[in-house]
Amino acid sequence: MPATTVLIASPLEAELVDRLRSAVPEVEVAFEPDLLPVPRYPCEHGGTKPDLDAAQSQRWSDLLAGADVTFDFDWRDPAATATNAPRLRWVQATSAGIGGFVARTGLDRTDITFTTAAGVHAVPLAEFALTGVLDLAKGVPHLRAQQAAHRWERYATTSVRGRRAVVVGLGSIGRETVRLLDAVGLDVVGVGRPGRTYDVPGAARVVSTDELDEVLPGAEVVVLATPLTEETNGLLSRARIDALPAGAILVNVARGQVVDEAALVDALASGHLGGAALDVFEVEPLPASSPLWDMANVIVSPHSASTLVSENAALVDLFIDNLRRFLGGRPLRNTYDATRGY
């Protein structure tokens, strides 16, 4: 029986490819970095696309045609994957949120199995959420402005201990966020999907999104950590932003489309919201004309809060485990469900 062929389809360190080959020697690993995008920063899986000549282009086509499994999506023409990679049975993605991508490319209508990187980014994203809450609650923007002006003026700050936080989305990112917020003394309410049972250490209680309108008026901190689905698109609407208490802090590590961004800008400009820490936006890159860039009470992160310099090692560990499961006919971790959108 021919060996399973695994194609590395996005940038990866050579030593990690060697680890993969050593860990699962029964597969054939195709890795030709000259045919892959060039990362602009550590652990980027997009990067600058190479300008392949005719021979290189044909070589990439041949590699795709012979692949049973790929590490990440085809960078060149993902929408044509089913045609260009007729043997392909499974793609291990490098992102946790692939719903929008597979829908846009039509991949969710193919027979290919997709697994996400869910869990790999939980710690850095939860740390970003905690950083945003502390930065804004402790008045760090004020301190930076005072420092820039060389102005020494004593002031009073606030504490996060005892504040009510609502964390929307209780996957690995949301659960880790709950744990960190609870550890610094916030009273945390977790919000999950209707009809699901959740075990969330650190949550004072857990409700469903059906009860979101009941908990938001008391939420001094809101963290969005949901996947983007039909149900979560526009979840934090203008009416819900208006329902938040004055001075509330918003953190978004979900997707930009989960929030009514125009309403968010209005609430920040008016002072209704105390601040926002945003890793995602309705349009990315964030347009230079966006008012969010110039707001002192806003942290703008270029959709990078999830990326650690050690991310690729964690992704390869996940891939190795899933590859062993795949070869053994066992269920894969983080299998994407097109009906749920994650």
From TrEMBL:
Transmembrane regions: none
Entry keyword Transmembrane: no
Single Gene Ontology MF annotation: NAD binding
Any Pfam family: 2-Hacid_dh_C
Keywords, ordered alphabetically: NAD, Oxidoreductase
Record-linked InterPro entries: D-isomer_DH_CS (IPR029753), D-isomer_DH_NAD-bd (IPR006140), NAD(P)-bd_dom_sf (IPR036291)
Chain ranges of the D-isomer specific 2-hydroxyacid dehydrogenase NAD-binding domain: 132-305
Matching SUPFAM superfamilies: NAD(P)-binding Rossmann-fold domains
Alphabetical list of PROSITE patterns matching this protein: D_2_HYDROXYACID_DH_3
Protein name (Swiss-Prot/TrEMBL): Phosphoglycerate dehydrogenase
Origin species: Microlunatus sagamiharensis
